[in-house]
């Protein structure tokens, strides 16, 4: 009897030991670990807001009649008419931006778009990026005076005989001449009692139709047009309806037409680009 | 009756004697023993460390205002601080919005290990053996892919670097 009990006890402890051996089979190695968590990354933003030099500041740059929607109506267009509007683009993001594309897109039905392109062929658009020393911000009054001066420059330039003669030979030649003249332009304006010399950091001159370019627009090809974070870019947009004298197109073909364009500016990050 | 009582008492006495005899059966033997004391068993220590750890609060990466195409590479020193040779696995992970594919075709931040400072030679991240007291320098690179889209604007993300070691001996 005693022997049986002892045997039984031995059998039981063997079972327990076996269990322990199985359970502990993978435990008996030393391990250690170290970690570094909570490393942080934050991406920046690229965002823009635009307004025009008009009252109110929201709305199209070019429109026919004065109304509550704007006080700078162009009236009905006739050949040799020229109007300049300022588009102010603020970089509201945290990353520097650069202008990569300028696009003018005809709007409306197929017929309206065709009419718009017919007008676009006879219109020259000048986009000048205006710069102030150290990026000084102009007050509304100074801005308007700069815009008026730029308007006069563009008007004289595009309607001038030198441009017209060059245009009769080659569009590219005429646009290059005009662009050079625009780039050379400077204007002194009083801004809060300080004289500020406004210059042109870069410019595009071409036909309004070319600015559409089948929807692709024009690669701005303006490497100087960098808009730093929190800064505002002042773009002077001029449209001049060119007189057809000596040129291949006919002004009369677009008499009585009403056309619409959207002006679009595409920006990309400067960094890694 | 008295006789029966006497017989019972006698029987009980005999049983008790018998029991005493059985219980005391192994007393009368001479014994002796020898001993060996002071045997010691010292277990080794397995300890891996990073030059910047959660325990000391330092971080490898703190990056602000990131744009697609940005990248950063940092030196990470792994040390065997214990008394046993070890081998370790390196685990790198990114999380948060910047570390997650927001859209099915998004390109979130990627994290990779390299053996050179320029980030050209990929590092084998498993079973890296370190002798006692040895350190090795590896390079961890985080990259915000250039084709990351606008869905990643103004977002944040996190990264973690972890080493898990085990003994090499008997293993």
From TrEMBL, chain A:
Q: Does the keyword Signal apply?
A: yes
Specify the signal sequence span.
Answer: 1-28
Sorted alphabetically, the keyword list is: Signal
Source organism, top-level taxon: Bacteria
In terms of InterPro entries, this protein maps to: Peptidase_M73_camelysin, Signal_pept_SipW-depend-type
> Which Pfam families did the record assign?
Peptidase_M73
Q: Which NCBIfam families match?
A: cognate_SipW (TIGR04088)
Q: From the Swiss-Prot or TrEMBL record, give the protein name.
A: Spore coat-associated protein N
From TrEMBL, chain B:
Q: Where is the signal peptide?
A: 1-28
Please indicate which superkingdom the organism of origin belongs to: Bacteria
Q: Provide this UniProt record's keywords sorted from A to Z.
A: Signal
Keyword Signal listed: yes
InterPro entries hit by this protein: Peptidase_M73_camelysin
- Name assigned to this protein: SipW-cognate class signal peptide
């Amino acid at each position: 009897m005693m022997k049986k009990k002892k045997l039984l006890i031995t059998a039981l402890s063997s079972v327990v030991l076996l269990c322990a051996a199985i359970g502990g089979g993978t435990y008996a190695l030393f391990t250690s670990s170290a970690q570094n968590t909570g490393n942080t990354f934050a991406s920046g933003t690229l965002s823009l807001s635009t307004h025009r030099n008009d009252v109110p500041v929201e709305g199209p740059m070019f429109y026919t009649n004065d109304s509550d929607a704007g006080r700078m109506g162009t009236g009905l267009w006739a050949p040799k008419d020229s109007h300049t509007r300022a588009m102010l683009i603020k970089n509201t993001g945290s990353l520097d931006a650069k202008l990569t594309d300028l696009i003018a897109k005809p709007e409306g039905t197929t017929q309206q778009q065709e009419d718009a392109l017919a007008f676009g062929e006879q219109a020259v658009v000048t986009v000048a990026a205006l710069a102030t020393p150290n990026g000084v911000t102009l007050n509304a009054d100074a801005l308007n005076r700069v815009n008026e001066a730029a308007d006069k420059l563009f008007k004289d330039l595009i309607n001038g005989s030198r441009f017209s003669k060059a245009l009769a030979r080659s569009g590219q030649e005429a646009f290059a001449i005009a662009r050079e003249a625009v780039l050379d332009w400077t204007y002194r304006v009083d801004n809060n009692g300080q004289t500020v010399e406004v210059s042109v950091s870069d410019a595009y001159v071409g036909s309004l139709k070319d600015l559409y370019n089948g929807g692709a627009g024009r690669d701005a090809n303006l490497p100087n047009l960098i808009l730093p974070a929190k800064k505002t870019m002042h773009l002077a947009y001029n449209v001049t309806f060119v007189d057809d004298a000596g040129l291949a197109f006919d002004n009369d073909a677009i008499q009585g037409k009403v056309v619409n364009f959207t002006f679009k500016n595409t920006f990309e990050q400067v960094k890694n680009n | 009756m008295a006789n029966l009582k006497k017989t019972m008492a006698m029987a009980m006495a005999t049983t008790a004697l018998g029991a005493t005899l059985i219980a005391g059966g192994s007393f009368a033997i001479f014994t002796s023993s020898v001993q060996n004391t002071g045997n010691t068993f010292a277990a080794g220590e397995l300890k891996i460390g990073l030059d910047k750890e959660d325990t000391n609060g330092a971080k490898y990466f703190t990056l602000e205002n990131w744009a697609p195409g940005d990248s950063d590479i940092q030196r990470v020193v792994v040390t065997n601080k214990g008394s046993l040779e070890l081998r370790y696995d390196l685990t790198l992970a990114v999380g948060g919005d910047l570390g997650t594919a927001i859209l099915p075709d998004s390109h979130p931040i990627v994290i990779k290990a390299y053996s050179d400072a320029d980030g050209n030679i990929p590092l084998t991240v498993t079973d890296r053996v370190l002798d006692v007291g040895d350190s090795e320098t590896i390079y961890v690179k985080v990259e915000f892919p250039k084709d990351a889209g606008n869905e990643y604007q103004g977002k944040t993300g996190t990264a973690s670097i972890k080493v898990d070691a085990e003994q090499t001996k008997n293993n």
